[in-house]
Amino acid sequence: MNPILPPFPHTRLRRMRRSAALRDLAQEHRLSVKDMIWPIFITDVAGADVEVPSMPGVFRRTLDGAVKAAEEAAKLGIPAICLFPYTDPAVKTEACEEAWNPDNITNRVIRAIKKEVPEIAIMTDIALDPYNANGHDGLVRDGVILNDETVECLVRMGLAQAEAGADILGPSDMMDGRIGALRSALEGAGHADVTILSYAAKYASAFYGPFRDAVGATGALKGDKKTYQMNPGNSDEAIRLVARDLAEGADMVMVKPGMPYLDICRRVKEQFGVPTYAYQVSGEYAMIMAAVKNGWLDHDKVMLESLMSFRRAGCDGVLTYFAPQAARLLAEG
Length: 333
Ligand code: PBG
Hints:
Helix content is about 40%, strand content about 15%. The chain is built from eleven helices and twelve strands. The strands form two sheets. An eight-stranded parallel barrel has the order 1-4-5-8-9-10-11-12, surrounded by eight helices. Strands 6-7 form a two-stranded antiparallel ribbon. Strand 8, helix 5 (about 180-190) and strand 9 (about 195-200) form a beta-alpha-beta unit. It binds ligand PBG. Pathway: Porphyrin-containing compound metabolism; protoporphyrin-IX biosynthesis; coproporphyrinogen-III from 5-aminolevulinate: step 1/4.
């Protein structure tokens, strides 16, 4: 037998897993409430807050309900919320004018929250779908999504949100050129400090189903979004989109959906080293909650493990419907 090299390995990785204390010391990534953005559905339809059937625990909130949610988020230490409107079908048109109405539900909620809960950052969504009679993110003529005309509308929409007090604009429409157009318009209108979190790599995904129920776009949408959202078979294209959006003036970028696209998160973070977010979308939430409701998965453990996957993949933060539940659990240690 060799006296210098014993027959058994010196490298025993199990040594550092022996106790909770050693596991803590060896842990590479940690979850923090400070890395979460909480998406909230708001509605201009009068009444009480209503639960979204395909998203148990998630509500469409009235203006008052939204302010209460912002207060709750601030108490829990969540740094930002993101607003998504469910608009009365009566205000949806093919020209989507309600999108840049200074008094639309989003802008009213922004102003109310800024007044009552000034410490929370407000992110918005820029896309025409909540206001579009045909459910698309862009203007439609003869069945074709019009890029440049849509960008003009998106700029008006973003300026109205900035004017109302939004801190982070989130263009989720996937039109070409919208980041540059929006950035120039913000500079020109005295809103140079407003940040843009670009939905840079947004895939044409079936995981958005419950969201479209939540914002009332399911019935309205004619066809699909494949001429503007990305093909799930592509990865290099995500890199080109992120490079383009950064060059046009985005401050942060997003990959969406989240869990099925962690490889994209990793590539984006490694290549660009910029603030990189993932959106754990409605379908991912619904999938976990459905299994939890059946007693097949443990809610708390699966939620935290799913959120950890984003940190491990290199994301700086995550948009997640689990934000308040996760914040409460993390606070309990
Ligand atoms: C709208 C938008 C969508 C989501 C965020 N913004 C839906 C879509 O593109 O059809 C999806 C979010 C989710 O599923 O949680 N442009």
